[in-house]
């Protein structure tokens, strides 16, 4: 069995972007490690959310622990940088925030975990962090450096299929929902074009697990939010697959145009429990 490390920026990112993949890997017996750069202390604070003396950072750490249990995470660690806030805010440059951190210093901290865990694979974000958040962009920078430092053989960038979501816009609009940060079609920059995506993991069987992990982050994802208010069939359409770009090892030319159906991991032993599912990445 393999160890796979997922590196995310804030609590709740793991559930939204990679929750189904994490749950599936854990179910198959792999060790799932979650490293979170910040505690997300600059997130929204709904009225009446916090108990006396409780900080949002404390609450979000507790929510992340609950989500991790739901997803089957074996270890969760913080790098303990400060949340940088949204792009263009003054908080992007404050001392101690992740976006302004020395990428080499942060990579050293992440690489230490990769080495300690002997992690065979690392999952980070694409070059613009999926949607331009400065902490997400820094996850990419730091993660790429850490993989080199630790000699991690497999690296994937979590992303979104931009073309899929453009096609889905009308279906979402017909449901009466407005996605957060919705952009005119000609301005959509979320995710990556379909022809760049190497891997599409079908997580429909884990859709309720993923929804429960999102729900665990109640401070940021309320029942009336875009994420949890959509009908079941639309929720599965939107969240029933997770997309990745494999950057290490680079896909060979022979597989161009075909997407892997799972993350590339070391082959499992040929002997084992009857009915055990294979964790080896396939191409379809």
Overview of the structural elements:
- The chain has one domain: Rossmann fold (3-Layer(aba) Sandwich).
- The protein has a seven-stranded mixed beta sheet, sandwiched between helices.
- The protein has 284 residues and is an alpha/beta fold.
- The protein contains eight helices and seven strands; from the N terminus they run βαβαβαβαβαβαααβ.
- Strand 1, helix 1 (13-27) and strand 2 form a beta-alpha-beta unit.
- Residues 270-284 have low confidence and may be disordered.
Give average pLDDT, whole number: 89
Question: What's the SSE pattern?
Answer: EHEHEHEHEHEHHHE
Give the termini separation: 23 Å
Shape: globular
* CATH uppermost class: Alpha Beta
- Measured as a percent range, the helix fraction is 25-40%
| Uncertain spans | 270-284
What is CATH's topology name?
Rossmann fold
Q: Sheet with the most strands?
A: 7 strands, mixed
CATH superfamily: LmbE-like
CATH architecture: 3-Layer(aba) Sandwich
Please state the oligomeric state of the protein chains shown.
Answer: single chain
Number of strands: 7
Instruction: Determine the structural class based on helices, strands and strand pairing.
Output: alpha/beta
Number of domains: 1
Record the strand order, biggest sheet.
3-2-1-4-5-7-6
């Amino acid at each position: 069995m393999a160890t796979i490390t997922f590196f995310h920026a804030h609590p709740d990112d793991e559930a939204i972007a990679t929750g189904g993949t994490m749950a599936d890997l854990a179910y198959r017996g792999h060790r799932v490690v979650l490293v979170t750069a910040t505690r997300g202390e600059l997130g929204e604070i709904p009225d009446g959310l916090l108990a006396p003396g409780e900080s949002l950072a404390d609450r979000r750490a507790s929510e992340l622990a609950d989500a991790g249990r739901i997803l089957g995470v074996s270890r969760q660690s913080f790098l303990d940088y400060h949340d940088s806030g949204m792009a263009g805010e003054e908080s992007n440059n404050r001392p101690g925030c992740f976006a302004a951190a020395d990428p080499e210093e942060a990579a050293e901290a992440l690489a230490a975990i990769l080495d300690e865990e002997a992690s065979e694979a690392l999952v980070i974000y694409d070059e613009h962090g999926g949607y331009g958040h400065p902490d997400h962009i820094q996850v990419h920078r730091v993660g790429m450096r850490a993989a080199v430092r630790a000699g991690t053989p497999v690296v994937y960038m979590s992303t979104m299929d931009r073309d899929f979501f453009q096609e889905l816009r009308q279906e979402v609009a017909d449901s009466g929902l407005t996605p957060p940060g919705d952009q005119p079609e000609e301005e959509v920059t979320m995710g990556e074009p379909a022809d760049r995506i190497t891997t599409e993991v079908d997580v429909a069987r884990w859709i309720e697990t993923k929804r429960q992990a999102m729900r665990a982050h109640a401070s940021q994802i309320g029942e009336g939010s875009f994420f949890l208010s959509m009908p079941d069939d639309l929720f599965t359409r939107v969240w029933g697959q997770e997309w990745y770009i494999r950057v290490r090892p680079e896909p060979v030319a022979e597989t161009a145009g075909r997407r892997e159906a799972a993350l590339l991991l070391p082959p499992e032993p040929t002997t084992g429990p009857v009915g055990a599912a294979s964790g080896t990445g396939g191409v379809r």
